[in-house]
Amino acid sequence: MKPAAIDYARPASVADALSIMESDVEAKVLAGGQSLLAVMNFRLARPTQLIDIGSLAELNRIFDDDGSLLIGALRCHRDLETDPLVRDRLPPLAEAARHIGHIAIRNRGTLGGSIAHADPAAELPALAALLDAEIYVDSRQRGRRVYHAAEFFEARYTTLLEPDELVTWIRFPTLPADAGWGFTEAARRHGDFAIAGAFAVVELTGDRRLRRARAVLFGVTDRPWLIEAVELTGRVAAPDIWREFATAAMAELVDTMEGAYRWRVAAGCLARAFERAAANARAGAHE
Amino acid sequence: MSDIVVDLEVNGVRYERTVPARLSLADFLRDSLGLTGTHLGCEHGVCGSCTVLVDGRSARSCLLLAAQVSGATVRTVEGLAESDGSPGTVQSALARHGGIQCGFCTPGFVVALTELVAEGKELDEEEIREALSGNICRCTGYHGAIAAAVELTGPDPGCAGCDQECGS
């Protein structure tokens, strides 16, 4: 339960970090370390060296832009959870962060680390995919590139990132004022990774019909699983339509998921997330 | 493989040591500094026994390298007593409410509770249970710890939530 011997570098800037990454593609970037150091303790990972970017203040900033929040990769989960700006401008992000591990984990674990690690049961990659956040990455060879989160997660712990690329910023679009969102996840114990979970966003027309309903499931396949409820567009958002929709939407996953139990849990999460999102959208429309 | 010079403050004392890069903060505290109050249970971030404060915020010392906290200020359970060595506020509350059984998890609870109290927010019991969910007690002595937390952070300071006769 101790990591193998390793080299360690603490670059003073993003540029320095990128130089080291270019010269040693077997190195791993260490941000909060709440996943990486655990797998290194198990010796499931044995990188040649750690590039500790944890103290790069330039990546621990947040900007309130028009229609989006631009968040540095080193913003920790606990700060996303408690930041009045995030809670006001993008409450589902604060909610997602709140469900990660425990306070001591959230004090260290970072947004960029979660995105780059791409655990298929993690909340932040799922929300990023649902909102199609922009993931800014930098490298010496290619400069800056911007990935769309909806396409970024390729498989379990696998993303479009090249070995020398560093996630530096994530731009989350905020939700339209009349949109409602819902979140639910099922875990055996508080703070555990979810068996399954879902985020949903519902937008209603003036006469309470569905303009757009979309969701993401996490913990069910090897990446965030996006669902766009195009067939419900124009329907009245009655509370009882979601269970049937969730069951139908997940039909194609029946044979790919491990176990019928997990599938049922996921379908229940999906329906509840939609119900909550629709209820919140209706409540918002009254204001 | 590289050795790293770390320079940090632990419980008010500044230390400079050369350590292997792979050394965890927990092992650094226990083996290099002899501060064995920080306990190691699972060594992968689940149990909470090794929780310490790094620049005032709780962290798993098994999921931190000593190298990472160079320049930081660390407080361990040894640094949370009163200056004369008597139990601190959090420790006294845990003792009063029977929030201690075998004691293995206790340092982690003391540290986690210290952070909660320092945040100064009024918390209800559900919020306290959520906040302390990262600390596992295999004696399952949670009720005493929760009662202590209610006393320290609850809306009605006193012995709310505790049915024991403690005389305070």
UniProtKB/TrEMBL annotation, chain A:
Residues 1-177 form the FAD-binding PCMH-type domain. It comes from the Bacteria. Keywords: FAD, Flavoprotein, Oxidoreductase. It holds the Pfam family FAD_binding_5. InterPro entries: CO_DH_flav_C, CO_DH_flav_C_dom_sf, Diverse_Substr_Oxidored, FAD-bd_PCMH, FAD-bd_PCMH-like_sf, FAD-bd_PCMH_sub1, FAD-bd_PCMH_sub2, Mopterin_DH_FAD-bd. One of its GO terms (molecular function) is oxidoreductase activity. PANTHER family: XANTHINE DEHYDROGENASE SUBUNIT C-RELATED. This is Carbon-monoxide dehydrogenase medium subunit. It comes from Tamaricihabitans halophyticus. The lineage of its organism: Bacteria, Bacillati, Actinomycetota, Actinomycetes, Pseudonocardiales.
TrEMBL record, chain B:
Keywords: 2Fe-2S, Iron, Iron-sulfur, Metal-binding, Oxidoreductase. It comes from Tamaricihabitans halophyticus. It comes from the Bacteria. This is Carbon-monoxide dehydrogenase small subunit. The keyword Protease does not apply. Gene3D superfamilies: 3.10.20.30, [2Fe-2S]-binding domain (1.10.150.120). Residues 4-80 form the 2Fe-2S ferredoxin-type domain. GO terms for molecular function: 2 iron, 2 sulfur cluster binding; metal ion binding; oxidoreductase activity. Pathway: Alkaloid degradation; nicotine degradation. InterPro entries: 2Fe-2S-bd (IPR002888), 2Fe-2S-bd_dom_sf (IPR036884), 2Fe-2S_ferredoxin-like_sf (IPR036010), 2Fe-2S_ferredoxin-type (IPR001041), 2Fe2S_fd_BS (IPR006058), Beta-grasp_dom_sf (IPR012675), Diverse_Oxidoreductases (IPR051452). It holds the Pfam family Fer2_2.
